[in-house]
Amino acid sequence: MTTSTAIGIPRTHFVSDTAVLTRRSLTHIARSFDTIVTTAVTPIAMMLLFVYVFGGAISAGTGPYVNYLLPGILLITVASGISYTAFRLFQDMQGGIVERFRSMPIARSAALWAHVLTSLVANLISIALVIGVALLMGFRSGAGVRAWLGVAGILVLFTLALTWVAVIPGLTASSVAGASAFSYPLIFLPFISSAFVPTATMPGPVRWFAEYQPVTSIVNTLRALLAQQSVGADVWVALAWCVGILIAAFVAAVAIYRRKAA
């Protein structure tokens, strides 16, 4: 016998309902592809600025500075992109779209998951654009397939974690500005990490914060994978941060969504 949800919709419909709503969201993205390009513009501008203006004054190993810089830029790309997730979800909430979906015979959570999966696809496209520009700037990696799969896996996990964080203001904000403003601290966080310079060059308190905040372990892991170096304990710290943030944000977002759907 098929188990049913509280509104009588078979749980087996969840996948098909989510797929339909995800196609709807992706269609909107395709019609306004400039949002993906805009998401990539700021990280690309930062990469150009740091490599061609500040790169000569920064000591960060023997390889090209773009190789050192790219992992942090990729995280900034994700942090920039998730603001659009919060914005699109806020618009659907305020426009009554989500309320309309809840009145239809579809899985309640499908609308939420559609936004999450759309965010994942859009951010991966933005990441690909940034990597493409980095290659033009001289980025090179001898990493094999397994290392690149590891990089992709961490970026996907990081994107999902921050996307569920973005869902919370998307559901609770009272204005468009409030829905997207939460991303600014997330964009700023890589600047106080090993993303741009080694943490050893920082003064005491700043260095302590930089070494123990989540971005540093994630950046170090990505950098080691791309450079064909040992990831050490950083990979476990990075995974713990990503999974921990993902679980906490998911639980909070689902609780808020259920309360609003009640």
Automatic annotation (TrEMBL):
It is a multi-pass membrane protein. It holds the Pfam family ABC2_membrane. Its main location: membrane. Residues 34-260 form the ABC transmembrane type-2 domain. The chain crosses the membrane at residues 33-54, 66-90, 111-139, 145-167, 179-197, 235-257. It comes from the Bacteria. It is found in: Cell membrane; Membrane. The keyword Transport applies. PROSITE patterns: ABC_TM2. Belongs to the ABC-2 integral membrane protein family. This is Transport permease protein.
